[in-house]
Each structure stands twice: as C-alpha cells, then as structure tokens.
Amino acid sequence: MCFCVFRTAYDVTLNDDSWSQDVFDIVSGNTSVSWERLDAGTVLSHSFELEAKTRTVFYGAPAVITFRVPTKAALQEAYSTPILPLDVLADRPPEKKFDWRLLAKYGSLVSVISIVVLFVYLVSTPSKSSASKASKKKR
C-alpha cells in the first residue's frame, strides 16, 4: 500500500485488518502500522505477506488511515482504494478457447461450400462490361 501526504500529519495510523484469519495467515509484516509524524510530500509504502488457507473469493475492505492535522483538532480518517475481489486458490471455470477439433472436422466442408457459393455468385452476377454492352444494343 502506498500513499502520499500533502501536509504535515501527526499520529498517523494505517489499519488494514480486513484479511480474515479464517482465510489467511500472516506470513510476515503487520496489517497495522503507525507513525508519529509525516511531513508534507512524504511518500510511504507498507506491505505484508499473506498465505491463503482455503479456496474462496475474497472481498476485502479498504484500509483505514487515521491522522491529525494542525489546523483541525479532530482525528481525520481516510480510506485506501478498495481492492477487487480476489479468487484465492479458486477453481476457475475453463475459458472457452478456439476448438481446433471443429476446424479439423468441418473445415474442408466449409471450404467446399464457400467455393460453390462463390462460383454461383460469379456466374449469376453479370459483369459490368456485359451490362454496358447490353444497354448499347437496346439503343
């Protein structure tokens, strides 16, 4: 997780505890971290490693960031960008890919039919030069 501070903030706490202990084990790091003071323009990053226990689709909540700014007495609260649902070890339905067996089975038939249709179209459609000759004969 990465966030940028635009003014000096005090008593900053990042809490990312939406990771269910039924689904995940924390391998390394902490889901919460705090800083006494962060100066304007500071860019921070925080990470931790999780290990999945079960197969599931997980919907995580955004991390909560609390902080104080000198111009306001009340504790301020902000949220991180929410993550998309995670397919944790989930069995995904197979993607429908192009079936080469259909091409092998029906490819030659489609080719023959296409050639016959093209031939019939060419024979039945008069050419432009013969159409212009026919209009000259009528005059």
TrEMBL record:
Domain of life: Eukaryota
Membrane-spanning segments: 102-123
Record key words, sorted: Membrane, Transmembrane, Transmembrane helix
Pfam families registered for this protein in UniProt: TRAP_beta (PF05753)
GO CC, one annotated term: endoplasmic reticulum
Keyword Transmembrane carried by entry: yes
UniProt name for this protein: Translocon-associated protein subunit beta
Lineage of producing organism: Eukaryota, Viridiplantae, Streptophyta, Embryophyta, Tracheophyta
